[in-house]
Amino acid sequence: MPAPDPLTPTPPALLTWSAIGEPVAQEYDDVYFSVDGGLAETRAVFLHGSHLPEAWTDKEVFVIGELGFGTGLNFLAAWNLWEQTAKSGQCLHFISVEATPLSKEQLTLALENFPSLKPYANQLISQWPGRVKGVHRLHFGTVTLTLFHDYVEQALSNFDGLVNAWFLDGFSPAKNPDMWSKNVFELMARHSVSTASVATFTVAGHVRRGLGQAGFLVEKKPGFGRKRERLEARYTGVNLQHKSSDTPVIIGGGIAGASIATAFTRRGITPIIIEPHKELETAASGNPAGLVMPKLDLQDRPESRFYNAAYLYALNLYREADTILGAGVLQIATSEKERERYKKIVANQALPDVHMQWVSSKQAQQILGENLTTKYGGLHFPSALTIAPKNSARALCKHCTYIQERVAKIHTEKGRWQILGKAGKILAKTDNLFICNGANILDLWPADVRFTRGQICWGDSAKTNHALIAGNYAVPFQKGMLLGATHSHTGAGENTKTKTADTVEIIKQYEAITAQNIDGSNWQSRAAVRVTTRNTLPVAHSPENGLFVLSGLGSRGLMMSPLLGEFLVCKALGEPAPLDIGTQARFLQVR
Length: 591
Known about the structure:
591 residues; Rossmann fold; FAD/NAD(P)-binding domain; ten-stranded mixed beta sheet; eight-stranded mixed beta sheet; globular
């Protein structure tokens, strides 16, 4: 089997600009906007052509699928119309495919042409992922944007969801035939709900025939501007739509459970959280500080794209939760081999330089404000975060119902899950149960997982100005510094007794990197158990109807949990998933 390609950014959008500031795609020699007015065309061809807002008035969840995100004009116009017409409790998903996404600078310049949409454009630009491959989910109140930065057939083949209305807005079929192929139309049909609509500006013969052969009833309609005609179509097949849910129950109030909880509350659903420890005393999420970092990979694999998308998603979520202690992390190479790997990762540019930069040893010392004994240089992540995990979990769960009990058993009765506490007491019943109880997972579900014990320590006898990773990690903390963490194999359960020898070893490692002398005699320490898997990938799937498991997050739970929580909630509700099918398959493999 050939080795995977290196993980690199998407191809760039090669643009020229007209005299009035409108973008033109060099590769396709085609415009992004109609010369007769881009916003007017969007409203006439796509919004009116999809019978919006009437089509979404009776839908709790409405899904628009778009081929060709471009400048995002169709999305912004749909969002604007949704805000004006949607009712309380409704949610809009906008799914869009783009193989050559604009840079943030290009996007900003292009959308200056539409001052009436500026409040929406500013929000889009603030979360814009840039040319990062993969699937990106962005939230704007009741509107959720999912971007597939990939080629159209690949994206639709991996899409997990159903669509109510399609916007076909690729460049001209004559100039960009891959966007208008027979395979694309068949994939659209596979992902269409019954009577899903299609709207597009073109009436090309092969487009009409291809849609018809795929199961769409096609009609010509009066065109916009200089175009005499446009197309509307409706799907004549049958696919099941999204599911409703009763009150979901989450076992575990750490960052994994909290990520699921916030995905539900975002949709106006109040979940129940069952957690035995009010202060998360034994959970890894109870640590006073932790890092939200990217997981680096040289190869272009489904999980590699997921790691980058999860990192960007987590940054947005924690900024929204407002529990950030600091920004920026240095990851220093500790050997020549590690240095070469980091150099390759930076050269591949899988994350743009706003998120990842190479620094020399001297530059690292300037950022850190202290000496380093290593001379290999390393990576600087300007956007990486230090957060308070316990405070973050609380913030994400602030609208939930809490039950402070330890779950003893779960089972189904008449198709519903029952959650039992001590002496068989029924704590809750639900159609959708989520197991996120960390080191105690084997008490409730026979997952193939492993356990490692991690100890951290902190004190005010030493200080750092910037978060640092060099084997172990150091972060500014209150008036001093927090250091972590050990990795040693352990059994399941709450193995949280601290060891003085571990604190001594952690401090020694930091002293060796920085040539500091630290008095750790009065330092505090804390230990918790991490859950990992044989292949180091997370457990995020539904092993039985109505049962969902989120575990195996290892030391990357703060980074991976937010997107995985969103994914599992989408699976429970039947909404479009933020993970592609290839990534889901990796998480389902035998561990």
